[in-house]
Structure formats: structure tokens, C-alpha cells
Amino acid sequence: MDLTIREFQAVPSNKDVFANIDGLQQKTFSGTILVAGMTEATHYPNGFVAPGTLLAQYTSGANTGYFAPYVQDHAGGLGLDTVAAIVWDGFYLGGPYPGSYDSTVVAGAILLPKTPVYLWEAKMPGLLLNDGVTAYAPVAGDLTGTNWSFVDLGTTV
Prior knowledge:
With 157 residues, the protein is mainly beta. The protein has 1 helix and 9 strands.
């Protein structure tokens, strides 16, 4: 039995990606992320899925209704190629240190389409393409056609 005492620094919820945070807390909903749909090194390197992460929602198959990170070039018909939510408050995946996350699904606060949200495009958390290896930086175009009020405010804060 391992009785080693470990300490870890909880990562605070950094909402710098949002240009407007006033009133957004009242517009959040609970969503459930499927952990198997994520890659630790990209999506939750510190045990948290960062605020501003674009999420898609499974629309078919055994995982229908769960959220996973948006995959810009996904063509599997599962709904992962359409932005369905944005992480508001970082989802904590449990586990005291990297590699020890044993949850299968995690609930957290999300923003749904039609929420008037403005994001700093340059500060949005990175994603992966369908190959699961190639990094992808989200752009304003990822939110078009999904009823998002999006303004690219540039890279200057």
C-alpha cells in the first residue's frame, strides 16, 4: 500500500480567454465531458480542462449527449466537428498528480450556443486534429454557423 503524502497545486480557473465575463456566470449550464475523448497532454495537462476550450457534443453512438473537445476536421458523423459549448470554469479531472486521472466522465460549467460571449482568439486553449497528434489552434471561423456571438479581439490585451 502506497501511503506517500503528495502535494499538488490546484490550477486556478483563469478566464483570461473571455473578453467579457460580467454576467456570464448566470448563463452557465452543467455539461459532462467524456474523458476518453481527450488527450491529457493537450486537453488537461494540469488535471484541468481550461476555460475557453471549445467542446463538441456526441450526437450519435454510445456516447450521445456527452461533450468532448471540438475536432475541426472530424468526419466520423459523431458531431465532434461542430462547436456545441465552451468551457466556462475549468473541469477538474481528479487525481492528485498527472497520470492519475481515473474518471470516465466529469461534469462542469459550460456556455451554450446563443450566449453572447467574446473571446480573445489568441488565448483560446489548443486542440488536436482528428489524427489525435497534430495541434490545432482554434480560430473565429470555428464558431460561425453555430449561433455564437464571437468577435476576434486580436492578440493585444
